[in-house]
Amino acid sequence: MSEDLPLKKSLCCPECSNLMTGFLVKAKGLYYYKCQKKCKGVSYSATKLHQSFKQLLNEYQCDVKELDVLVPEIMQYKLMEMSKSDANEVAAAKSKLSQVRKELNVTEERFATGKIEPSLYNKFSEKFRKEISELEEKLMNPNLTSSNLQKCIKNGFDLSKNLSKIWTSGDLFDKHKLQHFLFPNGFAYDKQNGRVQTFRTNVFFELIRSISTVLSKIKNGDPINFDQISARVTS
Q1: Cα 31 versus chain centre, distance
Q2: Do 39 and 55 meet the contact criterion of CB atoms below 8 Å apart?
Q3: Is the dihedral of CA 106, 109, 111, 114 positive or negative?
Q4: pTM over 0.70
Q5: How many CA atoms lie within 13 A of 115 on its CB side?
């Protein structure tokens, strides 16, 4: 039955948010998804839901030739954006580290001169040392490099060439893996409108969909508004 109901690991009830299960109507030979908590009216034809899910996957597929032209510009833009964010985070972490070290020094001086009790010294010195350790570890972690980003983009493109086909032809494990990778928080089904509603999408594929949407509205020769793309992804 699991092979016939591959969305069970990701499909959530729109009423109670619990993962849905499924069943077979033997007289019809058809499978259906239903709410585990038996919420009223929450039961869907697996055939229709699978069609809607494949339509959703099509929205995250890309015309590779078209996007390949944009990759260098997109990479440069996103790298600049990431570099600014990384620089701000590093500066904030360094400032915080300096502040905590000073607080630890003051605490040690006050303890050495008998101005605070051992219990208070142990409490605050342990707290400050833990913060220092966490901040130092954060500053030691390498940032995402240009080559790493390029590799991620290439792998993402390879996957996004035909998501619907990959999902259709894959085994149950592959389907679950793809579903969780694209939509880590799962999704629900809007039965009235026949659409799958996602809670959160992998940022790379949301970027692909945003680029495709923007490109469809741009006339030949018009500049691409990267801020518009970024806003769609982060909104």
Answers
A1: 30
A2: no
A3: negative
A4: no
A5: 7
